[in-house]
Design a protein that fits this description.
By secondary structure, this protein is of the alpha/beta class. The protein is built from nine helices and 14 strands. The chain has two domains: 29-67 and 208-278, Rossmann fold (3-Layer(aba) Sandwich); 95-205, HAD superfamily/HAD-like (Rossmann fold, 3-Layer(aba) Sandwich). The chain has helices at 48-57, 73-82, 95-106, 118-126, 151-163, 187-198, 211-221, 235-245, 259-263, and strands at 29-33, 39-40, 43-44, 61-65, 92-93, 112-115, 140-143, 167-170, 176-177, 184-185, 204-205, 228-232, 248-252, 271-273. It binds magnesium ion (MG). Magnesium ion (MG) binds next to loops. Residues 33, 35-37, 232-234, 255 line the site of magnesium ion (MG).
């Protein structure tokens, strides 16, 4: 997939291989990815519930960040609560909140045709944005993670973009969403279909690691970047996002990324840990990994 680079000057990889080690400090703020980091499918990942409770007990601030547009912020807070993880709606940043803000700022008044599940349409309408299924009425095609994607939707998007000049905005750049069954095709797959048939390119891909979501995270966390860590399971979104945010990066190997993929990547996380259970200070892991120096 084509991933838009984060808008930051600090994109040069650091020299040397990444080190499989845990941070030895407690940060004032943590930005925590959800899928593949806090939970996988319907199960919290090992150590997640305990570590997040310890972070709260330490008085650090938390923001939960996901590129998954299938739930609202309130829905994610409720899901976390079901796992025994305290989370308020205002602590959850999702692409849908960023989407309504983006469209209001950059495409005000434009009709929006969606390739998305019903929650996206509901969210847009609730924000006063006109949703249409008529290609001729669409100023924007919003492409999202859509498990109901089909040819009829692609055809409407094709006509809106190619025939009527609609812009394309995507909710997130992820090629697949990790699940216990091996994953689900995500927004990048629907976006590739629309871009392939229209020859057009999205004017914005929201979600991590883009600047729109970074701005939202900064506003919610309220902690200096040097005092904060971004924790997630994907190099191209989570580690890249830590660079957009200028925060310390912690990659967990509990989701989409394997140790060998870390070794082969030009992007170097500051820390690599097996999972959230190793996020806070404690004994360093001892296993000899083939990519360690
Ligand atoms: Mg993830």
């Amino acid at each position: 997939m084509r991933l838009r680079p984060p808008e930051t000057e600090d994109t040069e990889p650091e020299p040397g291989p990444p080190v499989h080690r845990r941070p030895q400090r407690v940060f004032s703020g943590y930005v925590i990815d959800l899928d593949g980091t806090v939970y996988l499918g319907d199960q919290p990942l090992p150590g997640a519930v305990e570590t997040l409770a310890r972070i709260r007990a330490a008085g650090s601030r938390l923001v939960f960040l996901t590129n998954n547009p299938l739930r609202s912020a309130a829905g994610y807070a409720e899901r976390l609560g079901g796992f025994g993880i305290e989370a308020a709606e205002r602590e959850v940043v999702t692409p849908l909140g960023v989407l309504t803000g983006y469209l209001t700022a950059h495409q005000r008044g434009a009709g929006v045709l969606t390739i998305a599940e019903p929650l996206v349409d509901q969210t847009l309408r609730a924000a006063g944005i006109a949703v249409t299924t008529e290609p001729a009425s669409a100023g924007v095609v919003v492409v999202s993670f859509d498990r109901t994607f089909d040819y009829a939707k692609l055809l409407r998007a094709f006509h809106a973009v190619r025939g009527h000049g609609a812009a394309i905005v995507a909710t997130n750049p992820d090629p697949f969403c990790p699940t216990p069954d091996g994953g689900l095709p995500d927004c990048a797959a629907m976006l590739a279909a629309v871009e392939a048939c229209t020859g057009a390119r999205a004017e914005a891909v929201l979600g991590k690691p883009g600047p729109q979501m970074a701005a939202e995270v900064r506003a919610r966390l309220g902690v200096r970047p040097t005092e904060a860590a971004m924790v997630g399971d994907r190099i191209l979104t989570d580690v890249a996002m830590s660079r957009t945010l200028r925060m310390t990066s912690v990659l967990v190997l509990s989701g989409a990324t394997t140790a060998s993929e870390v070794a082969g990547s030009d992007v170097r996380p500051d820390y690599v840990i097996d999972g959230l259970g190793d996020l806070l200070p404690g004994p360093q892991p001892q296993p000899a990994s083939p990519w360690e120096p």
